[in-house]
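Notebook entry, structure prediction.
Reason for the run: the old model in the group folder had no record of what sequence produced it. Starting over properly, with the input documented here first.
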Amino acid sequence: MKGTAIVTSEGQISLPIEFKKQLKPGDKYTIVVTEKSLILEKIIKEKAHLDHFLKELENIEPDADKPSLEEISTVVKEVRQKLWT
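New structure, fully documented this time:
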């Protein structure tokens, strides 16, 4: 599809109606400018799949420098004992 766009005095680009019909509010585009052309490429976000995310999460090794939940729980219990007695 081809059409003619006009640059306004404010620097905005006015598109033909047949192009505007394909645009939705909030759509984002990457703009590529060359010596003779201006190309708009729609940015499409890839949706993360929960299964893939959970699988990746399982593969993460625990940080040896950080205490485990069990160790944190033990420290909290000890501090509570000291405060309450």
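Summary: The chain has one domain: 1-85.
The old model has been moved to the deprecated folder.
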